[in-house]
Amino acid sequence: MTTTTVDLEFDGAVAILRLNRPEVLNSMTSTLAKDARAAIAKVRNTPGARALVITGAGRAFCAGAELKQEFLAGGAAQSAGEQLDLTMREDFNPWIKDLDELPIPVVTAVNGVAAGAGVGLALAADITVAARSASFVLTFCPKLGLIPDVGTTWFLPRRIGLARATALSLLGHKLSAEKAAEWGLIWQCVDDVQLFESALQIARALARLPSGIAIELRQSLKRSQVNTLDAQLDYERQRQCVLIESAAFTEGVNAFREKRQPVFD
Predict the structure, then answer these.
(1) What is the CATH number of the domain that holds 123?
(2) Most CB within 10 Å of its CB: which of 30, 42, 60, 212?
């Protein structure tokens, strides 16, 4: 699947989605979001797809929302705020929700700068890997008088803590991939030439997981952020009692007894 803004291909059970606006550092527009969502829908509806890798074409991952004058000024029928509200409600935010609701694991391979909303996109994955030359920068507060969006204020403090999230957002300092890995913002920083192969290897390993386990884990970790210990213990108990009756658990136990690797449907 190829459109003017994204490319989608399959490497066995791994789907690879590339943002394809390299001339503008893969900046986000409504069209890009719509095309990416269509690609994600195709992945969801492809029975053999078991993991997804998202990366950017060219020298950047995503430079955030495209700030064109007509977008900032609004139009005859809409103010700038009304236009942004429509774009975020119908395009940008649903894109992040699509990833969150995708039943297979998602890996982002950050191949260059992730700026503004591009940070939120990079962090919307289950596992984020970055090239050594990549960086993360939040320009919203110091440069634009805005707050981070597309889920960034949700993902950021949960990965690196409130103090670092606040300072990064207010100061707008560029965070290197190495420091991002050191802080726990991302899973791994690798040499540039190894980025795609590293992300692909991770995705291939994830593709061997039981079907649906990625979304189960996402939900359990989300609940842990708001639940009391007692409530989380109850949630874990409830889900385990369901999952223990699955074919995946049976296969896992059989594989353990037979001293072999499990093969999940």
Answers:
(1) 3.90.226.10
(2) 60
Short-list 164, 140, 157, 150, CA closest to 67: 140
What whole-number distance in Å separates Cα of residue 42 and Cα of residue 56? 19
Domain enclosing residue 217, as ranges: 213-257
| pTM, 2 dp | 0.93
Residues whose CB falls within 8 Å of the CB of residue 240, separated by 6 or more in sequence, listed in order: none
Measured in whole angstroms, the distance separating CA 152 from the mean position of its chain's CA atoms is 11
- The C-alpha atoms of residue 144 and residue 121 are separated, in whole angstroms, by 19
Per-residue pLDDT tens over the stretch 188-218: 999 999 999 999 999 999 999 999 999 999 9
Do residues 38 and 162 both lie within one domain?
Answer: yes
The answer to whether residue 264 sits within a structural domain is no
Task: Express each pLDDT in 93-136 by its tens digit.
Answer: 999 999 999 999 999 999 999 999 999 999 999 999 999 999 99
110 and 228 in a common domain: no
Claim to verify: residue 57 and residue 106 sit in the same structural domain: yes
What tokens does 242 get? 């369901």
Q: Is the domain of 141 the same as that of 245?
A: no
Q: How far is CA 179 from the centre of its chain?
A: 19
